[in-house]
């Protein structure tokens, strides 16, 4: 389970984050390369851009679900709430 207190400092501020459980597997970066990047110094992934559209939220949620280390979190906000909010903003 992702731990907000272990949130990596490279993450951009916002709902989604990667914590220190990251194993550098590249799954999140493969699924959502516009949202996740790799910190070459630490060998961890991080969120370099927060999702802004329903499609990007879907990709972020897919990365969260597929992360083998359970290192991606979303501050406990339900994906459906995020999608509804993004849809209203679009």
Structural features, described:
This protein has 90 residues and is α+β, with helices and mostly antiparallel strands. The protein has a single domain (4-89), classed as Alpha-Beta Plaits (2-Layer Sandwich), CATH 3.30.70. Helix content is 32%, strand content 13%. It is built from three helices and four strands. It has helices at residues 27-31, 54-66, 79-89; strands spanning 17-18, 36-39, 44-47, 72-73. The strands form two sheets. Strands 1-4 form a two-stranded antiparallel ribbon. It has a two-stranded antiparallel sheet with strand order 2-3. β2 (36-39) and β3 (44-47) form a beta hairpin. The longest helix has 13 residues, at 54-66. It is globular. The chain starts with 16 loop residues before the first strand and ends with a helix.
Summarize the structure.
The chain has three helices and four strands, in the order βαββαβα. It is of the alpha+beta class. The protein has a single domain, classed as 2-Layer Sandwich (Alpha-Beta Plaits), CATH 3.30.70.20.
How are the SSEs ordered, and which strands pair?
Elements lengths: L16 E2 L8 H5 L4 E4 L4 E4 L6 H13 L5 E2 L5 H11 L1
Antiparallel strand pairs: 1-4, 2-3
Helix pairs in contact: 2-3
CATH class, anyone?
Alpha Beta
Structural class: alpha+beta
Rg from alpha-carbon coordinates: 12 Å
**CATH fold naming:** Alpha-Beta Plaits
CATH architecture: 2-Layer Sandwich
Number of domains: 1
Extract low-pLDDT stretches.
Answer: none
Question: Helix tally?
Answer: 3
Shape: globular
Q: What is the makeup of the main sheet? A: 2 strands, antiparallel
């Amino acid at each position: 389970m992702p731990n907000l207190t272990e949130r990596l400092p490279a993450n951009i501020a916002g709902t989604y984050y990667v914590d220190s459980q990251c194993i550098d597997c590249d799954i999140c970066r493969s699924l959502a390369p516009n949202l996740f990047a790799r910190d070459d110094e630490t060998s961890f992934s991080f969120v370099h851009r927060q999702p802004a559209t329903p499609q990007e939220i879907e990709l972020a949620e897919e990365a969260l679900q597929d992360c083998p280390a359970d290192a991606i979190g979303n501050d406990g906000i339900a994906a459906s709430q995020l999608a509804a909010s993004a849809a209203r903003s679009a």
